[in-house]
Each structure stands twice: as C-alpha cells, then as structure tokens.
From TrEMBL:
Alphabetically ordered keywords of this record: Ligase, Membrane, Transmembrane, Transmembrane helix
PANTHER family for this protein: LIPOPOLYSACCHARIDE BIOSYNTHESIS PROTEIN PA4999-RELATED, TEICHURONIC ACID BIOSYNTHESIS PROTEIN TUAE
Highest rank taxon of the organism: Bacteria
Record field: transmembrane: 21-41, 47-66, 78-98, 110-127, 134-150, 170-187, 194-221, 227-244, 313-332, 360-378
A single MF term (Gene Ontology): ligase activity
InterPro entries: WaaL-like
Name of the molecule in the record: O-antigen ligase family protein
Length: 411
C-alpha cells in the first residue's frame, strides 16, 4: 500500500509492474480477502434472519481477535474513547426508556462495526488484503448481475448481491476511492477510476454519482490548497452536490421515469424531517429512524436526520467526530500524505451520500473508511513524535547537556 499504510507488509522494490497492480496476490492475507469479499452479499442467511454480510463481519473480527496487532493506536486513542462514550450513551438511553429488541440488535451492530474499525486500525485485519477482496467481489458482481445469476431488484439497474441500488452506489463509490491506496502507478489509478465510476453510473444512484465526482475533485485539487481554500473547496463541492442532486432529478428520462418515486421520496423526507424536529434532546431510541407514509413504514433517506432521531444531536456530533478525526485527520500531526488525502476523499463520499441515503454512518463501508483513517492518523502522530524526540536529543547533544557516559574506574 502507498506509503506503507500496512506496516506489516512493506513494499518491495525492483518488482515487475504487475506487482503494483491491485490484483497482485503477493503478500495478500487470503482469509481476510475472502471474508471481506462476502461483505457485498446482503441477502438474509437462511434460518438465521441476519444478513450474510453481517455474519461475515462477525467471522472476520472473531478470527482477527486471536491475532496480535501490528500497529499501535498511540496518538489515536481518541477512537476507542469516542466509541466507548457512544456505546455508554446509547446504553443509558435504552435503560432510561426501557430496553427493546431494536436496542439490542442495532446497538450490537454498532459495537461490531466499531470493533472492526479498531481491528483494521491496529492491523489485526490486513487493510490491503481486505480491500483487494472487497474490490474483486464488487467487480465479479457486475458480470454475475448481467448474466442473470445475481439478484436484480431494480429493473436492470446494477444491484446484484448488494440488494439495493443506493447501497450499491455507495459501496462502489467508497471502494473506488479506497482501492487507490493500493495503486502506485498512474495507469492503474486511472483504470480504477474509470471502472469504478462506470459501476456507480450503472447503479443509477444519482447521489453516489455526485458524491464520487466530488470526492475525485477533492483528491485532485485539495493537495494544492491551504486550510482556508480547502474549506472553500468543500463548500463548492457541497453546493455542486446539491445542484447535481436537484437538477439530475429533472434531466432527460429522469423527469418522467422517476417522477413517481421522487414524489414519494419527497413525502418521506417531509415526514422524516417533521419527526426529527419533534425528537427529544436524546432522540427516540435506536431503530426509530422510520416514518409512515401511505400506510407503510419507510426508512429515512437522510442519515443525519436518522442519528438525530435515534440519539439526538449528541449522537450526530459523536459520529461526525469520528469522521472528522479519522477521515480528515483533524488531530494528526506532521505532514500529510497521499494516503491521508485518499481517506479524505472517501470520507467525502460518506458525508455526501448521508444527505440523501438513510443508512450510511453505521455501515461496513463507513467503518472501513474510519478504521483506515485511524491507522493513518496514528502512524502520522507516531512518526511526528519520533522526529521530535530525535530533534530534542540532537539539540541536547549540540548544547552539551548530554555527555558520553564514562566507564566506572575502581581505585
């Protein structure tokens, strides 16, 4: 991986070009790749009632729990601290209102996502291997879908084993950005963007298309800008995202083919916003980000509103803190890197999609981004501390405050 995100597997030099490609097996931890590939299968497991991808997540952290970490969280201890605060807050909320099955199910899922993020950050789950498996599964999903093997739930729009076109769009967009961590050659990176972008377009998820475009703009432009202009760029990307979302809904065939579904979405949004505004300071509890329209229950189409409804503004701020600290490296010291910029771009996909999709922050895709971001932030902080320590020693030697230790001589 570029700049050794995975410190356990340093990049070897003088290898053929194929060794730099995404599909090179080389040092891949096969079991991580295989299990992560199953993350795309969102079908229910027969007789268990749980999605197969959630069971795969449980299997992966179960295996990783018996491994030794290859990286320290020193410099990023805010991650377990924030996670502990979130879990404690949700537990107290549930106890105050009366524990229900939704609290257990959804709270358990949040806990599993957080553990997965921690295992990615500490190297118990190999980042490079996991991303290779995830990306390869998404790639294979495409021909299986068009061959009629994978499920088709949206009238020919690319979904496959991901089940939902918006979930598919989010997943393809996030992984398209993340897999750039493994690409060291320009032609490989260009191929990834072209193939990944095409897959996002095939899902027909307008939100994901606009989010991926914004992320790629950030990746190309932000490295040349200082803090103030990066804020301006973020504002422009958000404005462009909203413009694309609004105008794509009335462009070309969308004006007729999506008119009914867009009208329903507007009614769902109106009812969701009304419930969000009426929520108490600590929310209604986990599993309450649903609203009733036309006699049916519908999940929110806004992940920000969902967190407010379930846990109030405190829960929203806590999750945004994870994204800010891991994804945007807000507390990381020392110079930035290409890896850090890629994680920023992936976080932009998550944040933008969350405006129009209901379940984004508590997903495997989001916590893969967070886990990798924590790993990069910890590495940057540790490198900075080592450099400062070396500078202090060098300065002390220069000033003569550190003297060679004389050998003891007996008389």
């Amino acid at each position: 991986m570029t700049e050794k995100v995975n410190d356990a597997y340093p990049q070897q030099s003088a290898k053929l070009a194929f060794r730099d490609s995404v599909l090179a097996l080389g040092e891949t931890r096969i079991i991580d790749a295989i299990i992560m590939a199953v993350f795309i299968v969102r079908l229910p497991a027969p007789g268990l009632g749980l999605p197969i991808n959630d069971l795969a997540g449980l299997a992966l952290i179960g295996i990783a729990a018996f491994r030794r970490p290859t990286r320290s969280l020193a410099g990023a201890y805010w991650y377990p601290a924030i996670c502990a605060v979130i879990l404690a807050y949700l537990a107290l909320n549930a106890l105050a209102a009366g524990v229900e099955q939704s609290d257990i199910d959804r709270g358990g899922r949040i806990f599993i996502m957080m553990v997965m993020g921690a295992f990615i950050a500490t190297g118990r789950i190999d980042i490079a291997s996991a991303l290779k498996g995830f990306a390869l599964a998404l790639l294979v999903n495409v021909p299986l879908f068009y061959a009629g093997v994978a499920p088709d739930n949206y009238g020919g729009l690319l979904t496959g084993y991901l089940g939902d076109k918006n979930v598919a769009g989010l997943t393809y967009a996030v992984v398209t950005v993340l897999i750039l961590l493994l690409a060291n050659r320009a032609w490989v990176r260009g191929t990834i963007v072209l193939v990944g972008g095409a897959c996002v377009v095939l899902t027909d998820s307008r939100t994901s298309m606009a989010a991926l475009a914004g992320a790629l703009i950030w990746l190309v432009v932000a490295k040349y800008l200082g803090p103030f202009w990066r804020i301006c760029l973020a504002a422009l990307i958000y404005a462009g995202f909203i413009f694309a979302e609004t105008n794509l809904s009335t462009a070309g065939d969308y004006a007729t083919t999506r008119e009914g579904s867009d009208a329903l979405r507007e009614r769902i949004d109106a009812a969701s916003l009304e419930k969000t505004i009426a929520a108490p300071w600590n929310g209604y509890g986990l599993g309450e980000a649903v609203t009733q329209v036309a006699g049916d229950n519908w999940l929110y189409h806004n992940a920000y509103w969902g967190l407010i409804t379930e846990g109030g503004y405190f829960l929203l701020i806590a999750f945004l803190s994870l994204i800010g600290l891991a994804g945007f490296q807000f507390l990381a010291k020392g110079p930035t890197s290409r890896d850090a910029r890629i994680i920023e771009a992936a976080s932009i996909v998550v944040l933008l999609c969350a405006f129009r999709l209901g379940e984004v922050f508590i997903t495997q895709s989001a916590f893969i981004v967070i886990g990798i971001g924590v790993a990069i932030a910890a590495r940057r902080n540790q490198a900075w501390e080592q450099e400062r320590a070396a500078e202090r020693v060098a300065e002390a030697v220069r000033l003569g405050s550190l003297m060679p230790v004389a050998k003891h001589t007996s008389f």
